[in-house]
Inverse folding.
């Protein structure tokens, strides 16, 4: 009796395991924006000439001056960032080669850094790159809905899901204005859900990277439409009742003046 | 559950120390609910119990700590070298005290104590990465297990390598490593010699808890030598560090992050290094394997023969792995003084040349100009007949670049008996000074180059002429910031160097002290000058050598404690040939030769040879010279015979037969011995031992196998000369790194390499 | 023991009643009772089977028995091969192997569910010694007819004059 019961339980468990295996691997969401290797394409190949603009050359020199002359390679991240701003939000392989030349290291050392950080885009993005926070607090507050609203409104696919089988990248809207990516926690959990908007429409001079917080699916569509019209929506929380990250309708606690910190009696010792 | 409880009660009653410590420090109720099979993870008990900790520190134990293990021998014969005896510190490995020099890591200390720590990313010749975490050990008073490869050993450290914590930690690491590792050992070429396989036998579980989908990575194309299966990669970064640090080609990198991390070149790029084959050896898993060897054999089917390499003058120590009568692969052997544990790609992958274009039957050229196979008797009879019909001064012998010392000795004795002394070895045709060994040897020795802090390369490109010497120079440049000056044609040296000039003019400037590089040489503590043996072919070689000697005098390169005046030879036979005195009497003897005996000499220029000259080719490959031969005598290759070779630093080494020879081929010395008998001037050597006792009279150093015999006299006793330096630029001695001799020219893999890799450069 | 024997007698009588004497003997032969006479192993297995529970039958006709009482622990599971004449251990398919060797308590029928359907091949017994076509010979082996022309090296051919 006991044996048959156990056997039935076991077979049930085995069936469950089998069910898990049967499920498609689609359940895991890929977070990478691009492949970890380069594929030549007309707008991204090592033969493409790429150089810092005159203004940015000055900036690069300034950045390099922050580091000792024998540790030039430390400037790789700021220089890559500069190059990305100059190139409309993404880094073609020739831009990385140019950075490698400036800091006098082998190109592979720059590729290593550029592939490591998800904020370096190695494939084309829109003028406004919208980064939806997908980490737990935002997700609980509905970041998936925000994302869905964005994707539906713009008619693009999420990053990581193959669009062109060859070049895996974020899909950019047809007018080249917007692309949607996913980002991990950007530290605005108190105003979740939020998106970050990287604005590459004005080159590296007018580059901004702003947070839009306390979003609703409706509000995020409004924000996108404002960008499309060339307006800049108010940065920060979109909940009119809140000031910065304060609570709705004003503070409710810590209303009195804070107590002074306890001071050690210096004479006592 | 009830069973577990009973077992637990019984266990806690019987006083196992772990239980007692635990139950004294943690609530008993917690320990009760754990099943008996649970492996305890306790941090060091002293930390949990402050009284105990103070007790142990205040009262040092009067007796020696109890020896858990008997003293063991160091792993792999690891040697301890104390540069400064005062810096020795004592650590305890599993309770066993060992003395180690300061600055060693915990892992090295354990190795000296005879405990082999499992590791993937740590490699003694590469920088420390500490990213595989397999080498975790427990160190007393440390709250967590420490990665022993990256942790410097401190005095009095108590290292525990086989405690439950260490084992549990390694098991955890192993489980993570196996999470994304494919279970394709049966079709993996590393199977049987895989570090991951071996260590998972000790620390792996027979089942994983990972139910997600395994990661897969796109394979990379690294060229015709290295096959990649990147899904098997465990990201130890050994190959990245090897390429960056040893090979000097910064092509490989670690791309991406997290579980998407992969090794790659990012852009499509082949690994254009002459040492790229070594990543196959250092890869602990089957991610990088040998492309020519792929799916050819399993390593347990192979018979290893420890021998040496003859494709360049370095004499790298190798192991020829053979299956039956076939050479399956060549892998390096450790020799700290010569090749450390690397070998060049030419050494590693030339073996398929041993199976192609082989001469297996004696052949004679008939009147119609076609070769036909004959018996040894007939072939030797014809040679003997011809040899008696030419004048002694018209007899010329040339030994090839792959000849061993014994056969060269025989050839010289044979021709001397015939009355001719026109015998030389390829690369020694232009009468270099063979009297003083210091004039043709690498006097500072290959390992000794590491002490140098300034290099002057004259007419030599070590990267193509002797890749292992180049690796040594690169190591020195990296470690000592040694300065390198280079005179010669534009070259691709993989370290920082100044290209001083292309003609001997620069050399003269340095000799006269007018060149800016002089100050570098003068300020150097141990300057080294390396002269290429390609200069032997120049007409003004004596003048150039004297200029070099002037520089040596200027820079105090030759001192009693340091001899930095080096010659880098080109072929394996050269040093032994010069030791045995194989230099021609007259420079253009080949133009008047009527009888030419080629012992594997394929790079000798036969254009000036008279049309009616009789050419005997004795060798193992149908290469260049065979087409001019009248008689072909098949000989055995270096993998099939026993022979002594002297490398460029003067170290005599011995090859051993790994496979039987092909067809009717015979050892070189036996052929000459037989020929001498047929021609009626029998040489009195009937065995290899007899030939060697003859060598002992001529050059006894050749018999001191595996010992480096340095030159005794230096250049001060050199005779006068009257030559003028010509201003023709230096030329490169080796055109194609991958194809330098008859074996490598017959090799398909080498042909692929020169097609795909050299064109990219 | 006696009770068991009487039970067997009764079931035999029942069998004869149901199938007639001819059918009964045919079944006896099929079940290997005839084979028991020259083959002591089979006889012993048959005797062992008395009072044991039949856990399962695989598709090769191997019958898996278990008996938990009055039997030494570790000998409480066994198989009666479907093949009565040339049986060997490799006829047990992998799904039953674990149960039979006390590796798992899941019976083969349960484990069969875990067998991959796309690439799981059918079990085959080990055919070593069952004929030359089943034996692996390395290349160059005298018994490997197709590959005798293999040479270990390629000799130089004097093509140019």
């Amino acid at each position: 009796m006991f044996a048959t019961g156990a056997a039935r339980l076991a077979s049930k468990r085995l069936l469950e395991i089998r069910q898990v295996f049967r499920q498609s691997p689609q359940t895991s969401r890929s977070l990478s924006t691009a492949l970890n290797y380069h594929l030549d394409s007309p707008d991204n190949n090592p033969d493409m000439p790429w150089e810092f603009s005159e203004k940015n050359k000055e900036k690069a020199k300034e950045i390099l001056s922050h580091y000792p002359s024998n540790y030039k390679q430390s400037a790789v991240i700021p220089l890559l960032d500069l190059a990305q701003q100059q190139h409309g939000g993404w880094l073609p392989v020739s831009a990385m080669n140019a950075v490698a030349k400036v800091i006098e290291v082998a190109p592979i050392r720059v590729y290593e850094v550029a592939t490591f950080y998800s904020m370096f885009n190695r494939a084309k993005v829109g003028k406004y790159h919208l980064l939806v926070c997908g980490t737990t607090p935002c997700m609980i507050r509905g970041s998936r809905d925000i994302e869905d609203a964005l994707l539906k409104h713009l008619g693009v696919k999420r990053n990581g899901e193959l669009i062109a089988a060859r070049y895996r990248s974020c899909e950019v809207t047809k007018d080249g204005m917007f692309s949607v990516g996913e980002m991990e926690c950007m530290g605005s959990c108190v105003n979740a859900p939020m998106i970050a908007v990287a604005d590459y429409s004005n080159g590296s001079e007018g580059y901004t990277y702003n947070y839009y917080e306390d979003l609703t699916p409706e509000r995020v569509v409004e924000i996108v439409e404002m960008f499309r019209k060339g307006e800049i929506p108010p940065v920060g929380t979109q909940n009119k009742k809140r000031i910065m990250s304060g609570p709705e309708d004003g503070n409710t606690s810590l209303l009195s003046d804070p107590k002074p910190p306890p001071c050690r009696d210096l004479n006592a010792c | 559950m009830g069973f577990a409880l009973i077992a637990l009660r019984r266990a806690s009653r019987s006083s196992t120390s772990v239980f007692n410590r635990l139950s004294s420090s943690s609530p008993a109720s917690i320990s009760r609910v754990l099943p008996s099979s649970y492996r305890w993870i306790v941090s060091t008990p002293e930390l949990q119990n402050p009284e105990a900790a103070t007790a142990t520190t205040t009262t040092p134990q009067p007796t020696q700590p109890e020896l858990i293990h008997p003293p063991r021998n160091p792993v792999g014969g690891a040697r301890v070298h104390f540069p400064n005896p005062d810096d020795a510190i004592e650590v305890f490995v599993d309770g066993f005290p060992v003395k180690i020099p300061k600055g060693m890591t915990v892992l090295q200390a354990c190795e000296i104590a005879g405990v082999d720590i499992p590791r993937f990313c740590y490699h003694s010749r590469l920088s420390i990465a500490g990213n595989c975490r397999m080498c975790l050990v427990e160190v007393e008073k440390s709250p967590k297990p420490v990665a022993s490869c990256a942790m410097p050993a401190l005095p009095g450290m108590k290292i525990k390598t086989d405690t439950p914590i260490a084992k549990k930690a390694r098991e955890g690491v192993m489980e993570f490593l196996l999470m994304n590792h494919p279970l394709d050992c049966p079709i993996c070429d590393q199977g049987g010699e895989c570090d991951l396989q071996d260590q998972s036998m000790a620390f792996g579980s027979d089942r994983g808890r990972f139910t997600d989908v395994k990661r897969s990575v796109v394979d990379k194309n690294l060229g015709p030598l290295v096959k990649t299966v990147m899904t098997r990669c465990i990201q130890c970064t050994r190959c990245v560090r090897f390429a960056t640090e040893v090979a000097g080609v910064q092509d490989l990198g670690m791309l991406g992050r997290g579980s998407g991390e992969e090794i790659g070149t990012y852009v499509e790029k082949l690994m254009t290094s002459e040492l790229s084959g070594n990543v196959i050896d250092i890869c602990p898993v089957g991610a990088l394997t040998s492309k020519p060897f792929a799916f050819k054999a399993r390593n347990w089917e192979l018979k290893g023969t420890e021998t040496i390499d003859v494709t360049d003058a370095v004499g790298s120590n190798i192991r020829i792995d053979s299956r039956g009568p076939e050479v399956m692969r060549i892998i390096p052997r450790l020799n700290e003084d010569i090749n450390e544990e690397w070998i060049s790609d030419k050494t590693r992958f030339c073996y398929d040349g041993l199976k192609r274009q082989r001469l297996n039957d004696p052949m004679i050229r008939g009147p119609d100009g076609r070769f036909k196979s004959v018996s040894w008797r007939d072939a030797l009879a014809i040679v003997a007949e011809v040899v008696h019909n030419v004048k002694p001064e018209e007899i010329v012998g040339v030994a090839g670049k792959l000849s061993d010392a014994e056969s060269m000795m025989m050839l010289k004795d044979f021709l001397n008996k015939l009355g001719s002394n026109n015998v030389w070895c390829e690369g020694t045709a232009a009468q270099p000074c063979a009297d003083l060994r210091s004039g043709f040897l690498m006097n500072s020795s290959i390992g000794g180059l590491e002490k140098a802090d300034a290099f002057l390369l004259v007419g030599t490109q070590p990267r193509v002429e002797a890749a292992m010497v180049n690796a040594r120079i690169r190591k020195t440049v990296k470690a000592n910031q040694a300065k390198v000056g280079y005179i010669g044609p534009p070259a691709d040296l993989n370290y920082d160097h100044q290209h001083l000039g292309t003609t001997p003019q620069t050399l003269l400037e340095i000799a006269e002290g007018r060149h800016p590089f002089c100050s570098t040489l003068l300020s150097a503590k141990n300057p080294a000058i390396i002269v290429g043996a390609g200069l032997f072919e120049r007409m003004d070689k004596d003048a150039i050598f004297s200029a070099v000697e002037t520089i040596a005098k200027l820079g105090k390169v030759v001192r009693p404690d340091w001899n930095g005046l080096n010659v880098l030879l080109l072929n394996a036979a050269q040093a032994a040939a010069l030791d045995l005195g194989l230099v021609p009497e007259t420079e253009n003897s080949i133009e008047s030769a009527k009888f030419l005996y080629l012992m594997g000499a394929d790079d000798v220029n036969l254009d000036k040879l008279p049309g009616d000259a009789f050419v005997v080719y004795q060798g193992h490959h149908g290469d260049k010279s065979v087409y001019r031969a009248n008689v072909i005598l098949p000989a055995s290759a270096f993998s099939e015979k026993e022979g002594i070779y002297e490398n460029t630093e003067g170290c005599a080494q011995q090859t051993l037969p790994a496979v039987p020879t092909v067809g009717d081929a015979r050892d070189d010395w036996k052929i000459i011995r037989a020929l001498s008998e047929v021609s009626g001037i029998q040489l009195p050597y009937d065995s290899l031992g007899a030939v060697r006792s003859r060598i002992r009279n001529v050059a006894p150093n050749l018999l001191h196998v595996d010992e480096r015999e340095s030159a005794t006299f230096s250049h001060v006793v050199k005779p006068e000369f009257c030559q003028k330096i010509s201003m023709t630029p230096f030329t490169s001695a080796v055109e194609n790194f991958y194809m330098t001799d008859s074996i490598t020219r017959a090799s398909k893999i080498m042909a692929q390499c020169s097609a795909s890799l050299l064109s990219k450069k | 023991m006696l009770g068991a024997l009487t039970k067997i007698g009764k079931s035999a009588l029942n069998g004869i009643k149901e199938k007639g004497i001819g059918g009964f003997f045919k079944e006896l032969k099929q079940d290997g009772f005839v084979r028991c006479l020259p083959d002591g192993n089979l006889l012993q297995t048959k005797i062992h089977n008395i009072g044991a529970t039949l856990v399962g039958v695989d598709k090769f006709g191997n019958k898996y028995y278990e008996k938990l009482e009055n039997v030494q622990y570790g000998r409480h599971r066994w198989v009666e091969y479907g093949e009565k004449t040339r049986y060997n251990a490799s006829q047990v398919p992998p799904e039953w192997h674990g149960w039979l060797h006390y590796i798992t308590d899941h019976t083969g029928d349960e484990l069969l569910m875990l067998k991959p359907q796309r690439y799981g091949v059918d079990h085959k017994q080990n055919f070593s010694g069952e004929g030359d076509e089943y034996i692996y010979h390395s290349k160059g082996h005298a018994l490997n007819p197709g590959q005798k022309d293999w040479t270990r090296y390629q000799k130089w051919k004097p093509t140019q004059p």
